Amino acid sequence: MAVTRETVSLEAVLIGEGHERRCRVKAMRHATYADECASPTCLSYSKFEIEDADDLPDGNYEVEFDAHRVPVVKTGGRYLPRCT
Questions:
Q1: Distance of alpha carbon 36 from alpha carbon 53, whole angstroms
Q2: Going along the chain, which residue ranges are E strands?
Q3: Rounded CA gap, 46 and 48, in Å?
Q4: Which of 11, 12, 52, 76 is surrounded by the most beta carbons within 10 Å?
Q5: Cβ atoms of residues 30 and 1 within 8 Å
Q6: The dihedral formed by the CA atoms of 47, 74, 11 and 38, expressed in degrees to the nearest 10
Q7: Are 29 and 45 in contact (CB under 8 A)?
Q8: What CA–CA distances, in Å, run from 47 to 27, 30, 38, 44, 79?
Q9: Running along the chain, 84 residues long, what does each successive block of 10 average in pLDDT?
Q10: Rounded to an integer, what distance in angstroms lies between the CA atom of residue 28 and that of residue 49?
């Protein structure tokens, strides 16, 4: 089994506090390949960040990208992972 990692930029949707908007996220994508398989058997992401700025209020949001939904909190103008 092989695992590759690369930083990618993805389209996403930011939802919460009565708002919804498109954005871009930068994330580390981990692809797991079974022996001699050309396409990944599993994709996962880590260390993601929202790339573009906005004027949304501080509060609780969710970022949805590539069929993943991640809870975040905006505080002081920065989006941080939110413990659920």
A1: 42
A2: 2-16, 19-33, 42-50, 59-65, 68-75, 78-81
A3: 6
A4: 12
A5: no
A6: 20
A7: yes
A8: 6, 11, 25, 11, 12
A9: 92 96 95 88 90 93 94 93 80
A10: 10
